[in-house]
What does this fold into?
Amino acid sequence: MISYVFWGSLALSGIKEGMLVWILFLLCQVGAPALAQDLCQRDAPNGYKVRISLKTALGEDAYEWNQSEMFFFQATMAFAMRRHFQMETYNVDNIILCVQTSRVSFWFVVTSPDNTTMLIPKADVEKAVRMSRHRINNAFLLSDRTLEFLGIYPTLAAPVNPDTPPWLIVFGVVIGAVCVGIIALLISSLLQKRRKEKGMTEDGQDEEDMQVKGVENGINLDGTYNRGFTDDDRFTKL
Amino acid sequence: MRCLQVSNQDLEERIPSYEELEKLENEEAGDRPKWDNKAQYMLTIVGFCVGLGNVWRFPYLCQSHGGGAFMIPFLILLVLEGVPLLHLEFAIGQRLRKGSVGVWSAIHPYLTGIGIGSMCVSFLVSLYYNTIMAWVMWYFFNSFQETLPWSQCPVNANMTGLVSECERSSPVDYYWYRETLNTTPDIDNTGGLQWWMVLCHVSAWALLFICISRGIETTGKAVYITSTLPYAVLTIFLIRGLTLKGSLNGVKFLFTPDMNELMNPTTWLDAGAQVFYSFSLAFGGLLSFSSYNSVHNNCEQDAVIISIVNGATAVYAATVIYTIIGFRATEKFDDCISGNILTLLNTFDLPEGNVTENNYDQVLHSLNGTYPEVIQGLNLKTCDLNSFLSEGVEGTGLAFIVFTEAITKMPVSPVWSVLFFIMLFCLGLSSMFGNIEGVLVPLQDLGVFPKSWPKEAIAGTTCVLCCLVGLIFVQGSGNYWLSLFDSYGGSIPLLIIAFCEMVGVVYLYGIDRFNDDIEFMIGHKPNLFWQITWRFVSPAIMFVIFVFYFITKVQETPMYKAWNPESENFPTLEEKEYPSWIFAIIFILAGIPGLSVPLTAIYKCLRNRCCKKDNEFKQDDLNTIIYLIHLVILFKRI
It folds into this structure.
């Protein structure tokens, strides 16, 4: 690309002007990265540190973190910015990365597509990241814990509140069974009592009949039975 | 040893003679309930003896008093103290065929206090024991969820973070102290009744009522499940536990012997106390259960078998518990180390995998050499496996905090949680049967309830009364009340009563008469071992344990541990002194059952002395009246 500019500028403006343009251009090329370096640095006020833990997340299936992955990150961030702002066209060049370590961690800043010297404020970047966090995580097969944006805390999952607490349901079942048990118990004891009473009154009547007929030890005795004495027997029972 | 016996007049009139016993046995007359078969009896006794103490007190004692070495004092005292006392209670109950009040008033009217003391202790213990059942039921009800509620902290009101109290301690602690107990910072604040606990409390008492409503008729059926299920669950947990990582660390920690502990007198005292409480002696329940046996049941064999089963269960349960504790401690240790490793990697931007558990110490050392201030600033936690293994492994802390945390780390947690709490519930319920038996039968013997009331009504009234009084324990401060009742109501009085029991049988009832009774019941006289232990060894051991316990309790200022979120060392429980009005309660709890023995004796003595003359007078009056009635009837006939 530089050679085209060189020949183009020479062709367009003659050799002297061409050299001037060429020198200016070269300075820009050298200066641009230097400028970018100034924008992105450790503890940059508008930058975020990203930390990636591939081995923790993927274990043996972990892929290698190389320049292509870095490019992918830039592309993903650009996508996130586009998605959030929906008007400005962010490009891969607008995401500047620096301070890479073998951990893997690095810093990044986002420049405005209109003016490459102007940085997007931290708050806007945060909003963009929050909005597309899920997509960013999935792009790298990572999670909130293993792809960390230091300073952007993951939102907590909303607690699931069922209408009836599950314990009340189990309690209801147990108490229902207990009540059924108690009722069954009381009914069975009542029935037993009635059976006993019935049995007793039947026995009592048999005894009376036997006495009236004058049956003693199975032998029929002749003669009348004096009721006066039987009544007395009952009253004197202490 | 006739010279040492106190003269006991009219004993023969109060107890059934051998002929009467034979008649009862052969004709199966009499309205005393009977066991359907021997298995029911054995399962009930095993269930009564094997309780929560075997699961959450014995393992702790074992580990803290030198592991494998603790077995030595435990086994020695089991043989010298546990087995003789057990045999004594079985034999005297089987011979005299009455509940605790009946037995002791038959031996001598002045000894009725022992029975009353047993009844009081059984009552106090029943009150708080069933609250523990209510807690177990609460956890059981909450185990039917995919994510157990104690596995994570709840989110706070604004959804910005986790609840602060939970974040500072741990999800299991928070769930136990806040969501279950809703505990107050001290015993003075009652905190009001916690409605969810009241529901569990009522259901626990209702379940108990169903099982005991007809005495051993219903209890005998219930024990088939409540006494056998814990063993099945323990076995399942053992198999599961042994397959988890780190379980053997726990078992090694439990059983590693430290012979120096044997020199420590506290070890022997704790072993003696554990044997005593583990056998549920002096509650009166064992006496009652034994009295439903046939006269010629071999109580000597039963005593030995039950002791072996109890001891073996304690060791088995300890092994199972410690496999799970070993797993939890290893997980926590691994988490601790991983946390430190991550901090190091993040601070120094080292590639992942550079620092592992193996080279952690080396790397830390070298980094400390080059960047000491940075390392200091990191506040790395010290990770020690042994300290994780010895955390909070006793009592309710073990069951509801440590074990529940271990369960959350196991796959398919709800299943394990349900199994564990069913096991605890069965263990406790079978012990409650014995406790309630020790309350109901003396009440019937004392004639507190009218004779026309059916058994269900008596059981029901007692359960309702206990349920209402037990509402103290479901308030906010209920946990503190429960520990109070446990330390003072369920400890000293039992020692006094057991000592009096031994002395009463050996010296008042007469050891010779007792030997003859046993010969009549099982066919041979008890051998020299029983004679020596009953007469000297066991009472001496009881006396020594009682004196040491009494001195220790009296000397120390009573303190309790409170959960106070505002205290300085927050997650650690705060030690607080009891307020002064608690001393009155302590006196009621420990004093009344303990003093009931001498007080009843004095009362009966006084009543006898002053009412003797009146009694004779009344008898004459009665005779005259009967004579007059007969005259009237005679006139009527003529």
Remarks:
- The first strand of chain A starts at residue 48 and ends at 52.
- Confidence is low (pLDDT under 50) at residues 207-215, 232-238 of chain A.
- Residues 17 and 109 of chain A are 36 Å apart (CA to CA).
- The radius of gyration of chain A is 49 Å.
